[in-house]
Amino acid sequence: MRNPKRTAASASALMIGVGLIAFISIFASSVKASINASVDRSFAGDFVINSGAGSSGGGIDPALTQRLNTLPQVAAATGERLGSMVILGQPSLITAVDPRTAGQIFDVSPVQGSISALGADSIAVYKDDATKNHLTLGSPVSVVFRDTGPKTLRVALIYGDNQAAPAANPGAKTSYFLGTPAYDANFAAPHYDTQVFVKKAPGVTTAAALAAVKQLSAQYAPGTTVQDQASYKADQTKTINQLLALVYVLLALAIGAFFARRASRRLTTIHDTIAQIMKGDTHLRLPVRSGNDAIDKISRDVNLMLDEIMRLLVQIKGVGDNIAHDLRSPLAVVHAQLERGLEKSNDEQLRAVRVVGELGDGAARALIDRQIVCEPR
């Protein structure tokens, strides 16, 4: 009969495992949907050329962007550069784009000013940060650059969509960004782009524009990757998929370990039962659940074998009983005759009679002993 406590424990473990998998799957799907939505809003242009350098900076020679802007298949291209600075007393990771072309690619919803106004002494500010810090168009902003030290920049753009603005991380919300003139003036050379965003020219097919961009990238920036929006989304969610796969593997291992421990406990119980049977408690049997797994099948077979052995022992005991019963009377007569012979025999005959008597007694005792041995305990 199935143990209710054991069944409840198994069911609870499975429910917890399934619940965790469902929760993590929903959470991962939500994160991926959020990333995809962010990419839809912030993905600038039709293609992105990625150096793989990330926030460490560097990667793509700005000459590639200049060459891309000369292609007939390209409407606009802008590089994106990264750097660290202090803005209004707060350390920040800042992004810089080319003000001549970035306005055609990044739709930041300008409130005041424009991207094209970002010169060597200016900065773009998100509207909420401008309100919090009482900044308006032309207001001074105190900053500190690592290479040029303290500077005062002027607000040249106040924008309304901080998720569509150039960002160090895809889909991140950006409070400030620079134009490349300010970046080049305050960050030590050499200057490299971490990414290049490209917008194809009107009337040009995506395939034709992509082929032209890839060909030029292979020539001026070998080792970079050119992605459209779909492949860019897949690349951003790849880490989530890898993490999800790892969590699934860990959960599977945990559930497997749980059932392995249960199987180990069952085998220990079977071993202890067999030890008791070997000690003489032949009425014991191996525990069998109501299931039909391999351990249950083996236990049933062993129990059947023990039943058959006990049946044979009972049969042998019956045969021994019959033999003992049949021999008792003849042996008793022999013993009585020998006793009478002892009273009348000489010394040599007496010794022979005693030997025969002892043999008869030994046979009787052996039969009794075998009868006891064959009797089940």
Give a written overview of the molecule.
- The chain is an alpha+beta fold and 377 residues long.
- The protein has three domains: 4-40 and 240-255; 47-227, no CATH class; 294-374.
- It has eight helices and ten strands.
- Helix 1 (4-42) packs antiparallel against helix 6 and helix 7 (294-344) packs antiparallel against helix 8.
- The longest helix is centred in the last third of the chain and has 51 residues, at 294-344.
- The radius of gyration is 46 Å and the shape is rod-shaped.
- The model has no long low-confidence stretch (mean pLDDT 79).
Q: What structural class do the secondary elements suggest?
A: alpha+beta
List unreliable stretches of 5+ residues. Answer: none
Q: How many discrete domains?
A: 3
* Averaged pLDDT: 79
Helix content bin? 40-55%
- What gyration radius follows from the Cα positions, in whole Å? 46 Å
Reading the helices and strands in chain order gives HEHEEEEHEEEHEHEHHH
Q: Give the beta-strand count.
A: 10
* Largest β-sheet summary: 6 strands, mixed, barrel
Q: What's the shape?
A: rod-shaped
Q: State the strand order across the main sheet.
A: 2-3-8-5-7-6
The N- and C-terminal alpha carbons lie at a distance of 26 Å
Number of helices: 8
Strand-residue fraction? Answer: 15-25%
